[in-house]
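protien #1 (seq + structre)
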Amino acid sequence: MTAAAREFNVGIYDRDPDAYLPLIQEAVPAATLRVCRDPDELAGLAADVEVLLAFKFAGKAFPRDAVLGLPRLRWVQLASAGCDHMLPFDASRLCVTNASGIHGDAMSEYVLGTLVHMLWDLPRLAAQQRRHHWEKFDVPTLSGRTMGIIGAGHVGRRIGQRARAFGMRVLGVRRAGGQVDGIDETFGPGGLEHVLTASDVVVVTLPLTEATRGSIGTRELKWLRPGAWLVNVSRGGIIDEAALLDTLRSGALAGAALDVFATEPLPAGSPFWDLPNVLVTPHIASEFAGWPTAVARLFCENLARWTRGEPLVNVVDPALGY
């Protein structure tokens, strides 16, 4: 019997799901929605759910053990493209899907927006305005420069498309290699050094896995061109933060836009806050207005597939970590 032919329970783990709950109820009228707005109540409230839509609560660790302990759970839909907070899990018992595909536009706008912010030195212009001071200066442009995208998946492809619209040449690195739409040349992992040394701007969009954790360290940062710019919109654990701090303080890099950090929220005592060549943002590159509803629409598409017994989209392979 498929899920469409019987009643079943769907858990919603989110502090504020009211905007999209009607979408889910309309998509699966046979389902009973069980909403959990408090991490401490997840295990008791959702013990009988078969399907769980799971967001992460700001400032709270994701309750992975509680989720994996739900006795009837068969499928978890994550609200993010990254799934490191759900790993590891037993794919023979549980299907996990992510939200890959919904964040690409917002994240590509973040990357190009922060690059314009840094290259045009908008803080300097704002300071001049506050002082009523008129002073011209030359600025570098993105056109004609090379962008290297480390992690040329869905988000990386979208960033590449936007960068090419700015007149940039785009190189990419991805596990599988092969050509990718929106990227001029794509390399496998063995091409990382070539891409880093050839790029004026490096954008990190890798998923955080055991293979990628700490994969950009002192050696890789030394491969970057003098005066290059770095943008990280993936996970803080991918870049060795101590090595990055040393590189930024040395002046080897022109600057960096960092949306993710190993510890979040970024501690008030972190030296990243005070570096003049760093733009710190609070992990917002993917959180465009209305993004939870976009996640819910993807969830509804997958719910329809699940009730019909069809393959789900964005299934996570725990061996790969994405």
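ok now protien #2
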Amino acid sequence: PFKFQGSIGRQLCRQILSTKLPFGPHDYQLDVITRVLDGEDVIAVSATGSGKSAYIYMVMIIALAILDDRSLCPSACFPADPAMVVICPTTALEEDLEQKMTSYGLRAKAVNAVTKMDAECANINIWQLVETEVTVLLISPEMLATQGFQGLLQHKRFKVQIFKLVVDEIHLLNSWGVNFRPTFQQIGLLRQRFPTSTSFIGLTGTLQKGKPYQSICKFLGLQPGKFYLHRRSNARPDIQLNIHTIRCNQATENFPELNWVLENSGKTLIFCLTIRLGFKLAVYFWYQDSQYLLANDRLRLFNSLNSSEYNDQTLRLLRGHSNVETASTVITIATDKLSVGVDISDFQRVLIIDPTDLDDLWQKGGRVGRNRLKVKDAQVFVYIPSAKMKLAQDLAAERRMSDDSGTMDVGLVDLISSSCLVSGINEAYNNPVNDPKCSNLCTSCQALPPLVRPEICNCNYC
């Protein structure tokens, strides 16, 4: 029987995507999407900026192309009007994907508290719109338990359309789903509500080996041997990783360790654990500001307390200054709201103050230098509060780490106490020494050859 994973199937997928997209698929992208098209459940792990989100629209583009011209693959079995449900952890990610998919000719719609309210103000039933006019539903976890979405799943017409369920940034199920946003708990239960023929795709750039990986599989009901794990290295050989100590606690209002940020041009992204800390840092920078960043609208706060209009304006500002060498300084102080999915191509440096765990650190670090043609010498600076740094060193020395909520994350402790930060990342994420290279058929690699691991590490531990 025909398989998309076979040579003819892969050739067909490459042919369709090369005519529908402005770029050709990587071989490793074909490894994933062909299995998804064959109905397999897949967890895909690879570095930030490696094209994981493309799996979503590539699958749908191929299915729609074959339905439009059955002669391409007469034996393919898809719903007559296929739909895909994509669960996104943040509204910024939803809207970013909606814009991208719409540009590729897909009927995508982001549904969250804001877009639902906007639809109601316009006297539009957003769930009816999704049922009749949408191919890709991008939905926030908070919407999963709403009456509108539950009603959508009970509607026979929509239910038979669904052929793929996608959860982006699945590593967040281990943290946000337990402590921060309980609505993430709905995702594990949601799979049981879908037709058994609906295959699952889980995407992430940060899924540690061992217990974190096992926990995700259990949460999603994925049994060993019954799904495909596609793990590529999530290392970023194009960035320099640095870890430093900072004097910082809940009462801190001065941040002299960060004064150097004001002296550097280009785009800087600073992640703070709370909105309050981010605001205090912004006030501190305002008092230290000799370049009038605030007066020139170049110091921005990006968080959930801002209006959506202000956050959108910040994103437009960041996307409008694509030339790092000539752009004015733009400093963005953000919370987790900007940590996943939003594709700003040219952050020169990313600072992470007090990361909660290793996944949090590496996910946020992945925002830097996503377009290496625009950014040279991309840097990530991790600032660990002095008390937490001492605790990590003590825990590492005594090996007293446990899974209790009051203890530091094991992965973060291991990284802090490692002799090399890059080696620490590779060990934690079970990264392959070398990923398989694409064939000569990959036009994307021909246009931009993949990075190779440098012989000499440039992290500040080496």
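The domain at 239-431 is CATH 3.40.50.300 (Rossmann fold).
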